[in-house]
Amino acid sequence: GDARVNTATKKYGTGSMYFDGTGDWLLSTASPNLALGSGDFTIECWINRSTPASGAGVILQMSAGTDSYSLLFGYISSSNYVVYISSNGSSWDIASAQVLGAIENDVWVHYALTRQGSTFKTFRNGIQQATWTSSSSIYQASNQVTVGRAQGTHPYVGYIDDLRITKGIARYVNNFTPPTAAFLNK
Question: Is the pTM above the cut of 0.70?
Answer without folding.
Answer: yes
